[in-house]
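Dear support,

We are seeing what looks like truncated structure output for some complexes. This example has two components. We would appreciate it if you could run it in full and send us the complete token output so we can diff it against ours.
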Amino acid sequence: MSRYVSFRDFDWFLFIFVLLICGVGVMEIRSATMHTKFAGAHIKQIYWVMGGIAAMFIMSLFNYQALLDKVHWMYIASVASLISVLIFGQKYLGARRWIKMPGGAHFQPSEWVKLVLILAVAKYFADLHHRNDLSWSDFIKAGMIVGVPMLMVLAQPDLGTALTYLPIAIMGLFLGGLRLKQATTVLLLAGALMPIAFFKVLKPYQQERLTSFMNPEADRQGSGYQVNQSKIAVGSGGIWGSSEGSQTHLAFLPVPQTDFIFAAFAEEHGFVGALAVLLLYFIVLMRLTQNAQTAPDRAGTFLVMGVVAVLSFHILVNVGMVVGFMPVTGIPLPLMSYGGSSVLFIFLALGMVMNVRMRRFVN
Amino acid sequence: MFGRDEKVSSFRLTAVQYVILGIFLILTYGLWRLQVMQSDIYTLQAEKNRVRNVPILAPRGKIYDREGRIIVDNYPSFSALLLRDSSRDLNADADLIAKGLHLDATELRQRIRKFNSLPQYQPIFLKDDITPDELAFIEAHRNELPELDTIMAHRRLYPRNGFMAHLIGYVGEVTDEMLNQPQFELYNPGDVVGVSGVEKQYNNLLMGKNGSRRAIVDSRGREVGRLDETKAEPGRQLKLTVDIDLQVAAEEALEGKNGAVVAMDPRTGEILAMVSRPTFDPNHFAIKISKEEWVKLVTDENHPLLNKAIQAQLAPGSVFKIIMATAGMQEGVAEDMHVNCGGGATFYGRYFKCWVLAEHRVHGPVDISKAIYQSCDVFFYTLAEKLGIQRIAQYATMLGLGQKTGIDLPQEASGVMPSEEWKIRNFKQKWYAGETISVGIGQGAVATTPIQLARAIGAIASGGTMRRPHVISPRDLPANIIPASTPGDETQISIDPKNWEIITDAMANVVSPLGTANSAHLQGIDFAGKTGSAQTISNTLKAKMGAVGKSKFKDNGWFVGVTPRRNPEIVVAALLEEGEHGYLAARVASQVIKAYVEKQRRQPTKVAGSPAKTEIGAVWSTPDSEGADHLQGGRFFVDLPKKRLSLATAAPGMQ
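Here is the complete output from our reference environment:
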């Protein structure tokens, strides 16, 4: 089979744009952490990106269809790892998200579960090849595939990561033939359950984040502080950017190298710079959708679109948070935010996309 | 194994693309809204974030005595702060902090918990005015306890033991109530303002003008740079007319007693010393007075916070007889008046006793001179009857009794000088002739302050020139700040030179073996004055309450003295509350007079101040071999000290 696979079919166009975004990210991490205790983080980020690129190439060599064949094992392993986090995980800031690995490394399974879920959802909907109409039982089964790990992550508790699983399910359901009636039913049900969820499921700090998002001015120095400072950073950037970048450099902006990196960038490079970065992301997403259309099979399409769903959701929530449209959820901006797990996940996901593309003429 | 089955609906894929486009348009709108439409607002907010106006506090002006000796100084005082955004476990550090700063650890934890609901950037004030070893503790633990910090402020340093406390006054934080008043519009909460005494009267001069610094701060409020700075204008230094040496003498004379002493130069109105007892320590107000101490000061029945020299309104007793004598002689009534004192006399059907009766004596034949130095009540009862209340009130008012002297100190009391109109106005009652008799010996409704008496007696001894008393010479004040006064800075009362001589000579006899205050006699000093013992309640009431001999209702002792007897350089009024006898007050006043004269004698004249030897002429006698004296005359050259001999170098407790 491998004789059909060639790096000539590797998506170099997509790769270049991805690298551009990474480059912007590294530059901004450098600028934002200068003279702080995080100084030098951009070098580490370069290592992560290089590691990510290597992982992407390796991933692209694996036949995604072979991965799909084994997806049920991976799914079981994922659920098992989430259970072990809940039992053995390291408690940090009131949540169990990490497992301490031998050698001092930390492992956060919820990131990798995302990849497995993309594969599992792709596999499930690809197997429903006989029709483009979704039955209620298929709907519920697909919902369960995503819902079980999601509830477990929610129990850690990690609302932000749990929410990133949701778009995988929605994308699968939509492309799998979701009917209008099903969509409205679920939306109405969700709407009815929302208040209960707010008061019963969410932790007080999560509730606070949501309420402070609704009215950030009310609590300027408390939990509304981050949103407010982010808006000030973005707004003071103006059209061409602020030369001083005081919000970022005087540490008014919280964690400017991770969750609020886009705010830091928007402050220093203004509306023009921020728009250019959004454009880069848009190009990457459009290119991915195009790859999905040319995928050799349904599974490939679902797989690529799963990646699109996760990326779009990250961008929407992160940039939305930065401009004050969304609550603070701790979701990083793909490829730009500092952090190994996030970078590695995206490059592995892109590796799967590359694999799908490289096999588009197979069969 | 996956068949080339049905493709995913391309319509749905396109729909996804449009959804993504929609998301990006929304995000673009978000950026547009913040960065283009509302950029100005957020730029301003970012500016507010990073630029902070840090006030530079102007040091308050120091206060000196008339010879430039320091009375009130400033000292740098440190307060300990707890920063709560330093990501330290404050609860864990609480024990060490409490130990180093001598606080209670449990209490400290409670404070930390109490502040939990407040924004993180607000530090907790742990302790004001920390000691040098506590400051050293903070400096030594900069690394272990980065959450500890200090700020420095200048605090007032007042003389110790309440020296001059009433005249100087004290400062306090401006209250919310004051902040609402227009004259305090430039003040901020936490600013220091004069609350009493000179500190209050000349607050505007003393306070200076705060500067400010526009500093760039980071999110923890740390200064990382400066933009510009407006320097603080330090407060103006004030030079009081008070002489520390006399003040020391007056404070010592009144130590352990309850009353007041005020010394004034009647030639200028300069206050040379002013003491009120009991006193308080204004240094306790400069930090934060404990509630306990405050309640103690306010509820003390001896009123330690009251400046009795200008605020005690009491019957002047026999000191008033000098005013009576002046009125009587100027009206031509007293000069030839002769009265036989048999220990009392009857007026308007009521028997009025003379004080000598208590000593089982009588004054016998009395003229104006004897009436003064023996303080004969019968003489002045008779004089009062002859003058009538209207003429008495006229002279007393002319001499400034019953009205504020206009001294440049806050909250001066006016006292009372009764008259027919006064009684009708205040009580809607007719004046009874019998009341005039009591007024004649300074009893009844007459109430004066020590400063009023000092001014009135000083004026009579000076031949009738009255000057407004002041603690800061108008020469040392900027033109726009000289306080306006209703009595006017100088008024002249005409006193016939012959009457003047008789009264002042009689006053000199008061402190001679003939007088009522013979024990206050000062050898070799031309000293004159008048005693007074004023009842606080009537003897009959005292007997009714069974309080005879109890200190609570003992008479108030007064003495007002001058030196020299005519055209005096100094007038001293002494009040001893529950001091029973005027001669005790006379001893207090005489100590101040003595200190003054001795200081003058040690002080070289202007000629003597010149470096050369001073030539003086002298007449002396030498006995010859037969024992007869031969008068001789000649000239000498003497060395006089070039430098003035200073008694004190600064107020107690100051360097």
